[in-house]
Structure formats: C-alpha cells, structure tokens
Amino acid sequence: MDLNPLIACRDCDRIHRHVAMPAGSVAWCTRCGAPLYHFKGAPLDRNLALCLGGLILFAVANVFPLLSFELQGQVRQVTLLSAVTAMADAGRPLVALGVMFTCWVMPLLTLLGTLWVILPFHLGLRPWKAALVFRLTRVFQSWSMLEVLLLGVLISYVKLGKQGIVLMGPSCFALGALMVLMAASTAGLDAEAVWERIGGRAYPVPRAHAGAHVSCHACRLVLPEGPPHCPRCGAGLHRRKPGSLGRTWALLAAAALLFIPANLMPVMRTSSLGDTQANTILSGVLFFMREGSWGLALIIFIASILVPLAKLFTLAFLLVSVHRGSRWRPEDRTRLYLLTEMVGRWSMVDIYVIALMVTLVQMGSLAVVEPGAGATAFTAVVILTLFAAENFDPRLIWDALEEPRV
After folding, report:
1. What is the pTM of this model?
2. Best label site of 89, 103, 347, 358, fewest CB within 10 Å?
3. SS3 251
4. Whole-angstrom Cα distance, residue 123 to residue 107?
5. Is residue 18 part of a domain?
C-alpha cells in the first residue's frame, strides 16, 4: 500500500502534498490561506511534563478558594465546584451544567486524554483506544474555557471590591498557571505526529480528480470516497458535514429567539437591607461605566451583547450566501467564519460572573444575590451559537467555485 502524502485544508478542502519542513514553520493553504499544519518538532515528553503539571495545578485549583468576600464581618468563599452547586441550588441547572462542563469537566478530560495517549508512547507501549481518545480530546479542548473564567474572576473582583473586601485565593493563581500550561501543551503538541504514531500513513491515496476524495475532519487523512469510517481514527467519513445547513439554521433560530429574553430579563437579583434590584446584562455594563471602569464595561458589552449578536448575523449571512451559491470573496467569508468561531467562547464570561456573585454574596439580611431567568436564557444563547458555528461547514463556501461534476 502506498504511503499517503496528502493533506486537505480543513476550511476549503483543497488537496495538498504533505512535505517535510523545518521545525517551527507553518504550511499554508494555497487557495484560502488557512494554516494546513505546523511543524512543531517538539518532543512528546514535553507535553507529558506539561500534562502532569497541569493535573497537579487542577487539583490545587479545586481544593482552595478562587475568591473570598467579606462584608461587615461575614466572610464567604467560592470554589469551582461550589459555584456549580450554588447555581443548581438556586434552580438554574442549565447554568450550573454550563459552568461545570466548560471549567471543570472539559479541562480535566483534556489533560487526562492527552496523558492517556502520550504516556504509553513514553513507556514504549501502544495506548488502548488511542485513536478514539485522542479524537475526543481535541473536542474537549475546544470546550475548555479557563481563560474566560479568569476574566470572569477579574470582573467579579472589581465589582465586589466596591461593596466589601475581596481577596484572590490560591485557586485563582493555580488556574492562571494551569491556563498557561494547557496553552503551552496545545501549542507544542504536534497532532499530525501523534496521528502518525497512532495509525501511520500507509492508506489508499486518491488518484483521480479532486471530487473523488474525502478528508477526515478529525485526523485530516485524505482517502478515496467510499468507506463509511476513517481507517485511522474511526470517525465517520463525509465529503461535507451531514445536514450542516439545516442544523445550523435550527440552532441559529433557537438562539435568536432566546436572545431577546436573555437581554430583557434580569440575569441577577440583588437584595440589600430589604431593597431588591434586578440587573440585566446592559445594567451591568452601565454599572461599570458609572464606577469609572470603562475597560471592563467595554469588555462586558463586547462579550455579552456585541459578540452574540454579531454571531447571529454573521452565521445567517454565511448560510444565505451558501444557499444562493455565492462566489463573492470566499477567502473573506472563510476568515469571517473562523473569527466568529474563535470569539464565541468569550460570551460565557457573564455566566461565570453570575455564578461567582451568587456564591459569594449570600450575607443574609445584608446582601443576597440570586440568578434570574435571563441567566438561563443567555446560557442557552451562548451554547446554541457555539453549536451552530461548530455545525457549519466552511467548505460549503468554496463548493460554488468548483466545476460541476459530470
């Protein structure tokens, strides 16, 4: 069987020949300009050390508090898991699940999955179910949002600092170090090298025209059309994501409907000395403006209002352009999609702020913060738009430029 030297662009599906390049260099697609692969050249042992260090920091981050809040002698502390349980106890299970999966489950599974694959290689063994685990680990990694959580911690620190004494706990610094280690592990991990060690590259090579190939969206292997599953990683093989347009439209429509109550209904209710105040996302922006924290006000406005709204309009524009078979500036439309996919995660920052505030501000008659119905609606909007962007297949943008098959 011939050695498979081909690689397909994930964004436009142009086939390229995989060639060796110096470590640290990047191969770019000749059609859409997207990066094809990075020649990282870093040994897997480095990623092993980073993952082991990350697991230690993850344990520290869950043992100690993130923040502590003192108001007139009463002290409250918050950890990752206590924020989850507080939202569940307050009757907001969707918010609790969103916080738990993006800040606890997914980072842990990313570390364990990477370790599951790399450690046996270090010991000269073959990992059990390595292809499945590594494929899932790449998915877990995309849903890990520690950097967004740390921004939420900073916003909560500033907001609560106007009302009482706030201290950052050891968990906050452990999370910061964990975020750096995980970013270094992701940047230094040569996924192509891992796939080669898992399954090699001796697979059938498509020899006909470009339409006779199918590329695995998980491990990037290029094969002749025909087999239902990738022989290397086991993922389903499809020339394009099945039902991409229909599913994206459905998710987008649901997110658009929920966007209105998410912004009109209160996301938090604050009770202080018998006085109750309902807070929407926009009122949070106005609070920081009144306090002179224009930078944080701008961050919340962009992440919680502008980004979700922009995602809705951008994805709708891309869907309409694909339906119409538009040939207008496919490179720019692809970049627009990638930007939309990249920034969508930052909308979770308001959810984290709500979870932290609800956990910390439980001071009896002095002050109590409760989550509002808007928090559930906004969490649903963020999750739905993330799934919508994930279901959209950017390769559909380029299909209108291909010659019709005969």
Report:
1. 0.91
2. 89
3. helix
4. 24
5. no
Tokens of 173: 């610094």
Tell me the C-alpha distance between 233 and 32, whole Å: 26
- Beta strands, E only, 339-400: 368-371
Question: How far from 199 is each of 127, 129, 195, 234, CA to CA, in Å?
Answer: 11, 11, 6, 11
Strand partners, 208: none
CA angle (21, 29, 9) in 5-degree steps:
105
Expressed in angstroms, the distance from the first to the final Cα of the chain is: 29
Burial code (b: 16+ CB inside 10 Å, e: under 16) for 286-322 equals ebbeeeebeebbebbbbbbbebbbbbbebbbebbebb
Give residue 370's domain range: 241-401
Q: What share of the chain is helix, strand, coil (3-state, %, to 5)?
A: 60, 10, 30
**Cα separation, 73 vs 189, whole angstroms:** 48
Domain count across the chain: 1
Report yes or no: 124 and 112 within 8 Å, Cβ to Cβ.
no
* Residues 238, 240: Cα–Cα separation, whole Å: 5
Classify residue 280: in a domain, yes or no: yes
Burial category of 168 from C-beta neighbours within 10 Å (exposed 0-12, middle 13-18, buried 19 and up): middle
- The predicted-structure confidence for 281-315, as pLDDT tens digits, reads as follows 998 888 888 888 888 889 889 999 999 999 999 99
Q: Residues 276, 277, 279, 282: what is their CA dihedral angle, to the nearest 10 degrees?
A: 180
For residue range 87-138, list pLDDT tens digits in order: 999 999 999 999 999 999 999 999 999 999 999 988 888 888 999 999 999 8
Q: Which tokens in the block code for residue 223? A: 């094969």
Query: Would residue 299 count as lying in a domain?
Result: yes
Per-residue pLDDT tens digits for 251-275: 999 999 999 999 999 999 988 766 7
Q: Give every strand in the sheet of 67-71, ordered side by side.
A: 74-78, 67-71, 165-168
394 in a structural domain: yes
Residue type, 196: E
Q: Tell me, what CATH number does 251's domain have?
A: 1.20.140
